[in-house]
């Protein structure tokens, strides 16, 4: 049973009448394995202090939260969002029989398939339901290189953007006429592939979707106006790109981006604090931007990492573990703690790790059914207890 202890929600600009559009999900992948214990810090717990003699967050470093917990020193802006009642902290999230491989564990999170190697991403399947015909090539937009497995599914177009300000196909070709000729050649190259076989169909459609998506997205920065100043880091640039595309009202329902690496085997205290400083300051700027444009109520952010880390430190950092933490952030979220923090008593550890107490597929069910309004069971492959982070 997931038990919630509620944070107090304060007034924001979204208490005023605002625009209403379709609900949008922004997924932030904290790549590398974010250390749960030094993120949501049980700094008053004696077992925590004993287990982390070298890298614990001390009482004078921690940002006090509530319930005897505190935040990593880099998470000051997250405390502001939490105090506004916008942050749901999902304790002990994971899955049965944890895997400590970055690649396999991330694949499990991407496909919602802990026991087999999945072939379709959970968000890719959701996007298929949101846009069954694939008529909008920017229903989903990934900010980053490549295509995350979470977004991959047959017949699902996804635009992947490295730099929105310079995004497009063949942008290095000088002259409008020359670029138009090159784009026509690009189109002719991919169109004959359609209908030849499944793989070539996929490649052909992907190429044409990329061309369509590039032409749509390139207009977003030109329409963007804001008084919000984002921090100067790569993650902030991605979130600003999300805001630009969202404000352009292009019909994008799912955004994806990632940051890291949180793989803190060494120099953890400084590294994790710096990463969270980037994430937190960028996230609050993003929400400030949403509020300025009156669009805060329609956006929810999910932040996750593939696993937590070992309870015992290794001298300067921590190694791969299990039992992690996730966050759901937004105006429509009931902020607070969800479920109990896993026991830090060594007698309760599972092979040296915190035990998980929330199956991530339950959280996916919340996101799919109560936010995107998509049936969850065929995507997460079963029925899982919901965590219920959204306001009713």
Polypeptide structure, described:
The chain has helices spanning about 45-50, 75-85, 100-110, 120-130, 175-190, 200-215, 220-225, 235-245, 270-290, 360-370, 375-380, and strands at about 5, 25-30, 40, 65, 70, 85-95, 140-145, 160, 255-260, 300-305, 325-330, 335-340, 360. It is an alpha/beta fold. The protein folds into two domains: about 5-165 and about 220-345 and about 350-380, 3-Layer(aba) Sandwich (Alkaline Phosphatase, subunit A); about 170-215. Strands 1, 2, 6, 7, 8, 9, 10, 11, 12 and 13 form a ten-stranded mixed β-sheet that branches. It has a three-stranded antiparallel β-sheet with strand order 3-5-4. A hairpin with a 2-residue loop joins β4 and β5. α2 (about 75-85) crosses α9, α5 runs antiparallel to α6 (about 200-215) and α8 (about 235-245) runs parallel beside α9 (about 270-290). The longest helix has 25 residues, at about 270-290. The radius of gyration is 21 Å and the shape is globular. Residues about 10-20, about 170-175 and about 185-205 have low confidence and may be disordered.
């Amino acid at each position: 049973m997931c038990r919630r202890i509620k944070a107090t929600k304060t007034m924001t600009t979204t208490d005023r009448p605002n625009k209403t559009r379709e609900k949008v999900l922004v997924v932030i992948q904290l790549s590398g394995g974010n250390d749960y214990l030094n993120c949501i810090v049980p700094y008053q717990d004696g077992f925590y202090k004993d287990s982390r003699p070298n890298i614990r967050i001390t009482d004078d470093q921690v940002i006090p939260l509530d319930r005897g917990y505190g935040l990593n020193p880099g998470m000051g802006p997250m405390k502001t969002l939490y105090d506004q009642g916008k942050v749901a902290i999902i304790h002990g999230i994971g899955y049965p029989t944890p895997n400590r491989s970055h690649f396999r564990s991330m694949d499990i999170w991407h496909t919602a398939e802990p026991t087999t190697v999945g072939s379709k991403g959970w968000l890719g399947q959701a996007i298929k339901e949101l846009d069954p015909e694939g008529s909008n090539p920017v229903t989903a937009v990934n900010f980053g290189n490549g295509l995350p497995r979470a977004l991959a599914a047959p017949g699902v177009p996804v635009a992947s953007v490295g730099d929105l300000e310079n995004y497009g196909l063949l942008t290095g070709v000088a002259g409008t006429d020359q670029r138009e000729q090159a784009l026509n050649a690009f189109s002719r190259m991919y169109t004959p592939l359609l209908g030849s076989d499944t793989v070539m169909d996929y490649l052909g459609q992907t190429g044409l979707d990329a061309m369509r998506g590039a032409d749509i997205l390139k207009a977003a920065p030109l329409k963007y106006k804001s008084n919000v100043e984002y921090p100067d880091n790569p993650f902030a640039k991605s979130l600003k790109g999300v805001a630009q595309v969202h404000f352009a009202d292009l019909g994008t329902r799912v955004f994806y981006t990632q940051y890291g690496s949180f793989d803190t085997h060494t120099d953890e205290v400084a590294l994790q604090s710096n990463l969270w400083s980037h994430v937190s300051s960028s996230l609050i700027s993003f929400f400030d931007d949403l509020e300025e444009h009156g669009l805060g109520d329609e956006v929810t952010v999910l932040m996750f990492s593939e696993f937590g880390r070992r309870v015992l430190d290794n001298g300067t950092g921590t190694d791969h573990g299990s039992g992690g933490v996730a966050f759901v952030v937004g105006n429509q979220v009931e902020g607070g703690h969800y479920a109990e923090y896993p026991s830090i008593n060594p007698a309760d550890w599972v092979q040296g790790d915190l035990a998980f107490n929330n199956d991530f597929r339950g959280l996916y069910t919340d996101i799919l059914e109560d936010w995107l309004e998509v049936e969850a069971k065929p995507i997460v492959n079963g029925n899982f207890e919901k965590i219920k982070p959204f306001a009713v």
